Amino acid sequence: MRIHCLQHVPFESPGYIASWCDRRGHELVATRLYGDEPLPRGEDVEALVVMGGPMGVHDDAAHPWMKGEKHLIASVLEAEKRVFGVCLGAQMIANVSGARVYRNRFQEIGWFPVEATREGVFRLELPGQFTAFHWHGDTFQLPAGAVNVARTDACEHQMFVVGERVIGVQFHLEVMPSDVASMCAHAGHDLPEGPYVQAADKMRNFTEAYESSHQLMVSLLDRWIGERAE
Description:
Strand content: 25-35%
Oligomer: single chain
Number of strands: 9
Order of helices and strands: EHEEHEHEHEEEEHHH
Structural class: alpha/beta
Number of helices: 7
Radius of gyration: 16 Å
CATH class: Alpha Beta
Largest sheet: 9 strands, mixed
């Protein structure tokens, strides 16, 4: 399958998603919105991955490409094609689906435990609890028809599914060590204070959860694309 990726900033890459595409024989094509690359037409997209970024879904004035991106996401959703959103990408899915996206009570930055809901355990076979990398301050109401499948103490809506083809994830299962280092290099010098914010050195030096994060990402992507794992 030809999977189209929308990338908002250079320091939030597809990461392990690219490795999964190579492993499964899919073609990954990227539109780098930060480089003013043109968006594809919705009818030309087989499956869409929408990555994260430091901007918010309401920052259309600062990012003129955002209006076209929202139109593309909406058209792909309307065509009932596969869409996978990561962090800002999940918020964009919620926004174009008519759900409210707003500032969360807490910013969540660093490696923190995630708890699967009952639906997450039974529908997606998520582990009851796992550790994932976070870098977000916004949250969202669930889109119509969506089911919340994961939560944290800092943010109730961490991951949702709509049917079998749409997945939105606030946290970052895709990150490689180089991605965490890049994010810390870009914004780690000016981190906010809060109960769910780790120091940049702690984020960079934490290595225990990469393997389990990538295994879980493979499982989710296989389910999303309709494949059986090897």
